[in-house]
Amino acid sequence: MDQEEELKRLKTENELLVMKLRLKEKYIKELEAELKQRKRLPIHYIKSQTLADHFVTLKIETTGLSSDFHDAFQIALVEFKNGQMINQYMKYFRPTRLLTRKVIQMTGVTNEFLEDKDFIEKEDIEAIRTFIGDKQIVAHAATFSMKFLLRYFDDFNIDMPEYTVLDTLPLARKLVKDTPNHKFDTLKTYFNLENYEPEDALTDAIVTGQLALKLNKLKQ
């Protein structure tokens, strides 16, 4: 390849690179504009530190931390009554954006696995609302899960009841003083709870119920 051809090749590569950068900048600007237009949804629920005899645990696996523009790709609910697990709901969904390497490592779920799954539809959120009914919701770091749940209720114009929610995270901070932190995995080890492999939203929802029952015993 002579010098002239090499210069042409470099020029073409440079033009392609500039084009990609412009497209990326355009995408970022469009995303920022979308986020500005999206209204901030107030989170309305009744906080409780008393575990009900009949409750539902909630766990949502998501593509990222922001309910404004990330998606849920797995939602699990487990119903407990009088200390026993009696029912469960779990479904995978196809998100509108790809899972990051970090999310794949954390959950074991891959983009290929989700390719043939359905997007979240109104009937899915209605089914979740029916499953919960008027029961207490229990979750670890509940604000995170409730933000996503509220987002989907709002997306599909479904009225969200004023749920009663028990968050095991602040409750554990209040009751457990001899752990380095109160992360979910730390508390699982501390209370010798079931260690499922691989972990997913359903197994985490099951263990969240077990954790809530353990914390409730400490209060008594």
Structure description:
The chain starts with a helix and ends with a helix. It has two domains: 1-37; 46-219, 2-Layer Sandwich (Nucleotidyltransferase, domain 5), CATH 3.30.420.10. Helix 5 (142-155) links the parallel strand 5 and strand 6. By secondary structure, it is of the alpha/beta class. Helix 6 (168-175) packs parallel to helix 8 (201-219). It has a six-stranded mixed sheet with strand order 1-6-5-2-3-4, with helices on both faces. Helices cover 48% and strands 18% of the residues. It is elongated.
Give the name of the CATH superfamily of the largest domain. Ribonuclease H-like superfamily/Ribonuclease H
How many domain modules?
2
CATH C-level class of the largest domain is Alpha Beta
- CATH architecture of the largest domain, please? 2-Layer Sandwich
Please tell me the overall pLDDT.
Answer: 88
Taking the alpha carbons of the first and last residues, their distance comes to 82 Å
Helix content: 40-55%
What's the β-strand tally?
6
Strand order of the largest sheet: 1-6-5-2-3-4
Task: Provide the β-strand percentage band.
Answer: 15-25%
Taking the sheet with the most strands, its summary is: 6 strands, mixed
**Structural Rg:** 22 Å
What order do the helices and strands follow? HEEEEHHHEHEHHH
Q: What overall geometry do the principal axes of the alpha carbons give?
A: elongated
Structural class: alpha/beta
> How many helices does DSSP assign?
8
Ranges where pLDDT stays below 50 over 5 or more residues in a row are none
Per the CATH scheme, the topology name of the largest domain is Nucleotidyltransferase, domain 5
